[in-house]
Design a protein that fits this description.
Number of helices: 8
Distance between the termini: 54 Å
Largest sheet: 7 strands, parallel
Strand order of the largest sheet: 3-2-1-4-5-6-7
Structural class: alpha/beta
Oligomer: single chain
């Protein structure tokens, strides 16, 4: 049975201190969330499939005087490799308290022109990889007696947000659904599974987009700007902490009302 948290002190209720937190797919948002968690006392384990990227991340974090982290080379499309890495983490850190699934790619093309290989890449990285990591880490959490899994979905999984992002939208809709499925299956093991659904975020994923694209995206937001990684720190900490212990299977939209703000203007 899920324990009732009777803590009313905000600092303790929202604490992530000493939690072992795995960031699967350490891109722009994942790194930013990881840093915020480290600043609040968590031990963060970053994974990435690119060795050079992982080495750069390690050097950058050390230069910023972070010490409570570790890095692991991991292609989350390879389930055997996931099992090896998670096994290593279990031995070294006695398990994983929280998992963030953040890996994603979002190439653009016309819906009718997406090639087979590109569609498979988008589905594999955004959805299949998240399933594999969740399965393996979930089994480790079951052995440990519980944990928290937080997926990064998207408003693109709720509505059509672009004419040129069909497989990404399909994959993110899948991420939302596996959130609900795993939450239902694993509640009896004291595992919470939730999802954050962001709008456009100013991360390296948008670096190759044209200024006209970015300007058009800004105009779609009622707050007059797109999201920045800092807009997700509070949500991430909330879902990783005891404050959200009775929330599971939920897709929390963090989009500045973009997905609901289409009223007539005249």
């Amino acid at each position: 049975m899920k324990e009732i948290i009777r803590e009313h002190n905000v600092s303790n209720l929202f604490s992530v201190k000493d939690k072992v937190i795995m960031i699967a797919g350490s891109g722009g948002l994942g790194i930013h969330i990881g840093k915020s968690l480290m600043e609040n006392g968590a031990c963060v384990l970053f994974t990435a499939r690119n060795k050079q990227k992982l080495e750069k991340l390690t050097n950058d974090l050390l230069e910023e005087n972070f010490k409570n982290f570790d890095t692991f080379l991991l292609d989350q499309r390879d389930k055997c490799q996931i099992e090896e890495v998670v096994g290593e983490i279990e031995k070294k850190y006695n398990g994983i308290d929280v998992l963030f699934n953040t890996a994603a790619i979002a190439p653009n093309d016309k819906a009718e022109d997406f090639g087979e290989e590109l569609i498979e890449d988008v589905i594999d990285i955004n959805l299949v990889g998240a399933i594999f990591v969740t399965q393996v880490v979930g089994k480790a959490m079951i052995k440990k007696g519980g944990g928290k899994i937080i997926n990064i979905g998207s408003v693109a999984g709720l509505i059509c947000h672009s004419y040129e992002s069909m497989p990404y939208e399909a994959a993110k809709a899948g991420v939302h659904q596996i959130t609900k499925t795993f939450a239902t299956a694993w509640g009896k093991y004291n595992i919470n599974v939730n999802c954050i659904a962001p709008t456009w975020i100013m991360t390296p994923m948008l670096e190759d987009e044209s200024q006209s694209y970015l300007d058009a995206a800004v105009k779609m937001h009622e707050f007059g700007r797109m999201a920045y990684p800092d807009d997700f720190v509070g949500t991430a900490i909330f879902l990783a902490s005891d404050a959200s212990n009775y929330i599971s299977g939920h897709v929390l939209v963090v989009d500045g009302a973009w997905s609901v703000a289409k009223p007539i203007q005249y």
